[in-house]
């Protein structure tokens, strides 16, 4: 904790909120001036830093995954240009090995001067939809090293004393598939950092340089003191758990473990990832900066009332084995860092749910990216188009409350679901279906939130390929305290020429598609919290009326027998006697279901006797959802998790 002179409470509070407002004003500037549809839908974040690069403030809607890394990239810029910084300079960096996330997240950093002295830095981070590389969107799941992922930008100067370095900017933009938007977004982000600069200088004019510098440190010390007090009030101890990446495409069958152990000692938390898997042969690896951010975001979820800045970061330590999936080193591919990121967050949710049970929450759905690119044949010049889409899904059930339906991912709730009207105007793709997905929510006494289903058709386009970056096709969204899992992720492609449906799963890149082809993908709901047989039947009835749960799965998962009276007017009734008997039968049989030979489940799945939800929720069996073949290693791993998280909570 830094040494600070006394700052009166009123001035402190005014400055604390003014710093946050200055970052929010950066966001407003970007929204009004950005060129990219991706950035317009809030895939960006901003921060204010002190003169050493420590984060002093974030905005109210900034994305969690970015915020925990921005201080690293600011400090790397300071190291690169130490002694050679000037008013009007703006620097760019996207280096994940220097504390960033992935190459698409490009940060612009501006030093803020007063009388020739740097007192702060403003930083704007935006996701550029393409940074080059082997596939449109720069997400090639087959990449083992960064050279297929796109352009790595180590710290460079984009504005030199206020002069735009056009040659450098155009060199970068010319190596992408959307150079016009890149140039526009550079100017938008640079102007955003200037908006923050103006606000900080206004505060200096009102309160003085010394008071503002003091405030930048004081807000960090405030968060550190508050967090240390709260951690010290908790019992010392150790808690551990694990989550999984679906697979290593370059390895054998079996899920990839990420192990997390939390140790609380006094007023400090230590997160130990020892035992996590080595880096894998795809882009689903995390460099240290992203892992750090996942820890910060996961832990911060349980302390929502405090601002997030570097004061928060001082209270925890991370042990991440070098060369593991949570500490990838150059040149290991890391563009898909988000897959381990969200596993880390959910593992931390589970641990803190045991420490602070009143805030307990089950696993949330996994964010997915769909990237389609080619030539737009609707225009005579056939320009390159880039369709970059993500979907909302369900968050986990909570202690005493259902999970949030159709919500953006825990990766960052400030992210918006993209409006299809804007997508259709910019891309030769028609959305034919976008709706809440019945039975996607993990069953529980408090069910998970519901996910969605989106279906799209390719229109007039040429040389088009599609990539899908997702997970939890096998490491399926899980419940806790007796709650049940959600459902597998994966994309289905229907070829117009054959009419045949192809299950492509949750991870693929560079698949050729043609005009008329249809692709459809669901997002999972959240995991359930508590035994679903303890859910109030009236709540199940309401879920059926709202199409969150089908009549069939109300019986299978909740043991609630509902008779349709007139579905057209949502008229249903509960058969109380049949419900009592069915729940008795399920309680008697369900532990035995977990001992069923996976080969038997596979045969029944292939025969159409059971579906994927039966396999996952009742038998904890993971299959190849295309062929129906059993995956023995993945099943063993999933069953072990299921017994600890679900079956252990049953009476």
From TrEMBL:
GO terms for molecular function: 5-oxoprolinase (ATP-hydrolyzing) activity. One of its GO terms (biological process) is glutathione metabolic process. InterPro entries: Hydantoinase_B, Oxoprolinase-like. It holds the Pfam family Hydantoinase_B. One of its GO terms (cellular component) is cytosol. Signal peptide: none annotated. Residues 8-532 form the Hydantoinase B/oxoprolinase domain. PANTHER family: 5-OXOPROLINASE RELATED, HYPOTHETICAL 5-OXOPROLINASE (EUROFUNG)-RELATED. This is Hydantoinase B/oxoprolinase family protein. It comes from Ensifer oleiphilus.
């Amino acid at each position: 904790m830094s040494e600070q002179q006394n700052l009166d409470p009123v001035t402190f509070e005014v400055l604390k909120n003014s710093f946050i407002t200055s970052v929010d004003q950066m966001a407003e500037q970007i929204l009004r001036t950005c060129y990219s549809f991706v950035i317009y839908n809030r895939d960006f974040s901003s921060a204010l830093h002190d003169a050493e690069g420590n984060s002093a403030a974030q905005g109210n809607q900034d994305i969690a995954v970015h915020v925990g890394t921005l201080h690293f990239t600011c400090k790397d810029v300071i190291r690169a240009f130490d002694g050679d910084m000037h008013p009007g300079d703006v620097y760019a960096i996207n280096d994940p090995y220097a504390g960033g996330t992935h190459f698409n997240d490009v940060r612009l950093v501006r030093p803020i001067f007063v009388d020739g002295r740097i007192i702060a830095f403003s930083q704007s981070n935006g996701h550029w939809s393409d940074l080059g590389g082997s596939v449109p969107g720069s997400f090639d799941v087959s990449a083992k090293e960064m050279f297929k992922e796109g352009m790595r930008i180590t710290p460079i100067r984009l504005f030199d004393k206020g002069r735009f370095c056009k040659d450098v900017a155009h060199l970068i933009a010319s190596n992408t598939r959307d150079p016009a938007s890149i140039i526009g977004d550079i100017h938008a982000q640079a102007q955003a950092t200037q908006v923050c600069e103006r606000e900080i200088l206004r505060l200096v004019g009102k309160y003085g340089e010394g008071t503002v510098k003091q405030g930048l440190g004081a807000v960090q010390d405030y968060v550190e003191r508050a967090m240390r007090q709260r951690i010290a009030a908790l019992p010392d101890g150790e808690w551990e758990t694990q989550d999984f990446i679906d697979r290593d495409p370059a390895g054998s069958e079996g899920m990839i473990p990420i192990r997390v152990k939390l140790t609380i000692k006094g007023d400090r938390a230590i997160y130990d990832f020892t035992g996590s898997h080595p880096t894998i042969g795809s882009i689903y690896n995390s460099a240290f900066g992203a892992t750090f951010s996942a820890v910060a975001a996961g832990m911060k979820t349980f302390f929502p009332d405090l601002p997030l800045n570097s004061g928060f970061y001082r209270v925890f330590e991370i042990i991440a084995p070098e060369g593991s999936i949570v500490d990838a080193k150059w040149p290991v591919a890391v563009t898909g860092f988000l897959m381990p990121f969200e596993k880390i967050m959910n593992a931390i949710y589970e641990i803190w749910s045991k420490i602070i049970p009143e805030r307990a929450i089950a696993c949330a759905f996994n964010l997915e990216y769909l990237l389609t690119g080619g030539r737009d044949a609707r225009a005579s010049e056939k320009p390159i188009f880039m369709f970059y889409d993500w979907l909302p899904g369900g968050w986990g059930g909570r202690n005493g409350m259902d999970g949030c339906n159709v919500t953006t991912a825990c990766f960052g709730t400030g992210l918006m679901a993209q409006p299809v009207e804007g997508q259709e105007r910019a891309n030769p793709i028609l959305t034919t279906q976008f709706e809440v997905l019945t039975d996607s929510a993990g069953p529980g006494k408090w069910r998970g939130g519901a996910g969605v289903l989106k279906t799209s058709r390719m229109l007039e386009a040429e040389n088009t390929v599609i990539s899908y970056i997702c997970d939890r096709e096998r490491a399926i969204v899980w419940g806790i305290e007796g709650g049940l899992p959600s459902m597998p992720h994966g994309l289905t492609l229907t070829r117009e020429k054959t009419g045949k449906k192809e299950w492509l799963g949750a991870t693929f890149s560079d698949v050729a598609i043609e005009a008329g082809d249809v692709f459809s993908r669901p997002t999972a709901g959240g995991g359930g919290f508590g035994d679903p047989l303890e859910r109030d039947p009236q709540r199940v009835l309401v879920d059926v009326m709202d199409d969150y749960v089908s009549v069939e799965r109300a019986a299978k998962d909740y043991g609630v027998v509902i008779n349709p009276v007139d579905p057209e007017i949502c008229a249903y009734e509960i058969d109380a006697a049949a419900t009592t008997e069915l729940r008795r039968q399920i309680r008697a049989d369900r532990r035995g279901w977990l001992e069923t030979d996976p080969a038997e489940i596979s045969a029944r799945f292939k025969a159409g006797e059971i579906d994927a939800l039966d396999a996952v929720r009742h038998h904890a069996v993971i299959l190849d959802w295309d062929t129906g073949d059993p995956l023995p290693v993945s099943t063993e791993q999933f069953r072990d998790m299921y017994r600890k998280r679900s079956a252990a909570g049953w009476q």
